[in-house]
Design goal:
Shape: globular
Distance between the termini: 32 Å
CATH topology of the largest domain: Dihydrodipicolinate Reductase, domain 2
Amino acid sequence: MKQLTVGVVGAGYWGPNLIRNFYENEQVELKYVCDLLPDKLAGIARRYPTVKTTTNYQDMLDDPALDAIVIATPVRTHFRLAQQALSANKHVLVEKPMCMSSGECQVLVDLADARRRILMVDHTFAYHGAIRRIKEVIDAGELGEILYFDSVRINLGLFQSDANVIWDLAPHDLSIMDHLLRQTPKVVHATGACHAGNGFEDIAYITLTFADNLIAHFNVSWLSPVKVRQMLIGGTKKMIAYDELTPMEKIRIYDKGISVTEPQSVQSSYVNLISYRIGDMHAPVFDLTEALKTEVAHFVDCALHGKQPMTDGRSGLRIVRILEAANASLKSGQPQEINLEQPAPTVVPQDFGIKVG
């Protein structure tokens, strides 16, 4: 039985994946797809003949029977489109990153609270079966105290015309870290370089430091000859290696680590301090359901029953604040403190001149 009526704005790179998953969800009536390019809409109309297509976003806003709007457009348009949708009492699922600034994110979070609407961010990897399995392992205490989080996301292209590599690639892994660790970084230090002459860094390294000596590191690049999607998480008991691209054993849990003993005397302070533990490795199975299918089902459930999304607007706000601090560090060459508890800068809602119809 169809219970939630949905419209999608944006039929470009990621939009078709969202359109397909909402169309196939048994609890959803996909009523609209909106895009500024008629040729995109023509393709949608051929594949989904029951769906209305429009180049005018206002058609969706004005429809009282439309319950939710999914935003899959360039990030510079997210704030205005989401603000209008929430103001029209629509639930919102918005692509990542949530907005161009933390101030814009805060406006949307406050508006969603005031309107009692669901605001969810498309942090897709949080819904991936492998990441959910890793979270189960961490939450069960199998790794012990987390010592480090190391991530590599590199490939050749695609160069963006309006954002650097941090804003393009880092949201994926920052959202995974935020979901898995649930700890607040204190300081970020980022370095990078632009090689294409367009003013946007195409390779960058981001280091986050936390309380209790936890450290996280991210390598993002558009200039790698090979595509790599790997993650390492080290704990005091065990360690995890995750390779998104390998066909088998994407998750490997290693019973490896070190033990540090206090020296018995000053003379022995440099010997016998560290011992190594080498145990078994096992590769746990995980749910192979498409991550986006799981995410769409979660959004529908939250919208229908008033539940808080796992990747809600506040999680989107946290990621954007880290991105802002990383970008500031990249430009200044200096580490930047992060205070996620401090209110985000105030943004006055305004018209940014973005054409939506």
